[in-house]
Amino acid sequence: MRAIRVAVVDDDPASCQRIASYLERYSLEQGEHFETATFTNGLEFVDGYAPLYDILLLDIQMKPIDGVEVARQVRRKDQSVVIVFITSAPQYAINGYEVGALSYLLKPLPWFAFSQEIKRSIAQVRGRVEESIIVGEAGKSTRVTLHDIVYVESVRHTSVMHTLSRDLTLNTALKDLQSQLESKGFFRSNSCYLVNMAHVVGVEDQESIMSTGEHLRVSRPRKKTFLEALASYIGGQE
Amino acid sequence: MNTQILNALPDIPRLYTAISEWGACLVYLLAARRRVPLARTAICLVVGLAALIGVQYWAGTLPLAFWLFSMCIAVAMMYALIVLGSGVSSLSGLYLVVRAFVLAELAASLHWQLDSFFRSKISSHFTLVSLILLVFIYGACGLAAWVAEKRNFSNVNFPLPRRSVFISLVIAVVTFAMSNLSFVSTNTPFSGRVGVEVFYIRTLVDLCGFAVLYAQQEQLRQNQANAELASIDARLDSEHREYLRSKENLDAMARISHDLKHQIAALRMQLDPELKSHDFEQLQALVQQYSSQQHTGNPVLDVVLSTKERICAQEGISLSVVADGSLLEGMSAMDVSTLFGNALDNAIEALEQVANKEERLARIALYASDQFALIRVENYFTTDLSWRSDGELKTTKQGEGLHGYGVKSIQHIAHKYGGEVSITTQDHWFNLCVLLPRVQGKLSQVHGE
C-alpha cells in the first residue's frame, strides 16, 4: 500500500517534533508508511498549499493565523484531505464541523488517543478508493464507477442503472446486483429500487430524496431498516 | 357441507355469511382510526359488499372440496376491504381482519342457531320474523363488538409487534378449525353429532375465540400504557440525577474558587519574577480548564455538555465534542437533554469499565449531512471481548446490559422526529448514530406512526 502523506502544522517546533515521533512510532507498530512534512507557520503553509496530503494535523492556537482559519482556506482548495485538530482548549474546536473535522485531539497529546485518531483517519483515506463494477449492457461490458450510480431500477426482467451521466439497461436481475452491491453502500429500499446511499440527501414521509432531485418510494416495511442502514452509512463517513 | 350430520339442518345461507363478513369489517373499520378520506372508505364498503356476496355465491357453485379455498378467498376479500378502507399498514390489517373474521363467524353462527331453533318450534316459514331476527342479531353483535373494541383500537399505536399479529392469526385459525370440525367430520372426539348441537358448539367456540382475541388486544394495550409510564418515570429519574450532579458541580466550583483565592495570595508573596510567571501560567491553565463552556448554538445542549464534561474530567475521560447545536432547532428541550444525556451516560458508564485511563476516549459529533442532522456518540470499550481462533480480538456486540434502557429512550426520541438509530461496534469502538431528517432545515415531529 502506498504511503500516507501527512502534513503537521504547529507553530511550536517541540510539538511538531513530538507528533513526528508519534507518527514514526505508529509506523513501527502498525507497519504503516508515512511521508511526513512539518510546518511551523500556518500562513506559509496555506499560501503554498497544494492538495497533496491525505491527513492534516493542525494545531489550533497558532500565530499569525490560527488552525481553524488554516483549515478553512485549505478546504477551498481541497475537499478530501482529512483534517485533525490538535488543541489545548476544546472550545476552539467545537465548530470543527464547518471544515469537516468531527473530532480533535487534546494537548498535551497522549499517545493512545493519537494512535486511535490516526488509525481512523487512515481508514477514512483508504476508504476513499474509487471502486467500480463491470456490467453487461447490450452485449458489451462497461465499467461503471460505483459513486456515479444513483440508483438501479428493476424494469420487468431487466435493470436500469441510473448513473450521473446516463441510464444503462442491463440484462442482470436487480436481485443479483443487490447481492453484489449491498456491502458497498447500496440498499434495496423497495421491490424495484436499489439505491446508492451516498446519493440519498433526504427522506420525506415514504420517499427518499436523491442528489439528482428524484424522489424514490421506500416500501413501508423496509423504511426502518433503510433508515438504520442510512444512519450507519452516513455516520460512518466523516 | 353438513351432509354427514344426523338429522341434518340447512346451514347458513351464503347471503347471510356475506352480510355478516361485511358487517364485521364495518365494525373494525369504525373502531380503527381511519387514515383515508371518508369517500374512499364508503366506496370500499359498497364494492366490498358486492364482492363478498359474489364470492359466496361463486363458492356455492364449487365442489365441497374447495370449501376451505373459498373461505380463504372470502377472508382475502375482507382483508382487502379493511386495508383499503382504513389505510392501515398490511400488518395492522392482518391484525384487524382475523378479529373481523372471528366476529363474522360468531354473529353468523349465533343468528343461525337461534333462527333454526325458532323455525323448528313455530313454523317453517316466517320470513319476516327471520329477517327481523337477522337484523337484530347481527346488529346487536356488531354494536357490542364495536363498543368493546372501539376503546381498544382508538389508541393503539400501529404498527404492532409482529409476534402479536402472528398469535392473533393462530388464535383465529384454531377457532375456525375447532368451530367447523363437526361440519367436516362427525367422527372426531371434538365433533357434535346432532345438528342443533353442532350449531351450539360452533357458536361457543367462536365466542371463546373472540374473547381470547379481545383479551389479547386488551393485554397489548395495557403493555403499551405501562411502557409509556416507565418511559416517563425514567425521564423524571434522569432529570433528578441531572439536578443532583449539577449541584455537585456547584459545590466543586465553590471549592475551586476557594483554592484559587489561596493561590492568588501565594502569588502575591512570590518575589522571584521567573517563578512568578510560571505560577501565573499554571493558574491560567487551571482557570481555562474550569471555564471551558460549550457554545454549540443550542443552550440546552450547552448545559448537558458542560455537565457531562465535568463528569468526564473527574473520571479521566477525554471527550471530543464537535457540535452544531443550531441543527437541533425544532427539538424540544426535554428531548435534547434526554437524548444527549442518555447517550453520554451510556458512554461514560462503558468508559468507567476501561481500566487504563489513557484509553478512556469518547467523541461526540453533531453535524449536518445534506438534509439530515446526524448525532454520533462513540466510545472506546474493552469489556465483552472474546478471542478468535486466530488470536485476534473479537468484539461481541456490546448490548442490552450496558446500553439497555438508554438506547430505547434514544430510539423513542429518534422515532418521534422520523429518524432512526444505528449501533455498531468496531475495533473496540462503540458507535451510536442517530439520523434525523430535516424538513426545510428543521427537525419536526412526525405524527401518526
TrEMBL record, chain A:
Record's keyword annotation contains Kinase: no
GO MF annotation, one: DNA binding
UniProt modified residues of type 4-aspartylphosphate: D59
Ranges where the Response regulatory domain occurs: 5-122
Residue ranges of domain HTH LytTR-type in the record: 134-232
Top-level taxon in the UniProt lineage: Bacteria
UniProt-listed CDD domains: REC
Name of the molecule in the record: DNA-binding response regulator
Keywords attached to this entry: DNA-binding, Phosphoprotein
Cited SMART domains: LytTR, REC
PANTHER family per record: STAGE 0 SPORULATION PROTEIN A HOMOLOG, TRANSCRIPTIONAL REGULATOR-RELATED
A Pfam family it matches: LytTR
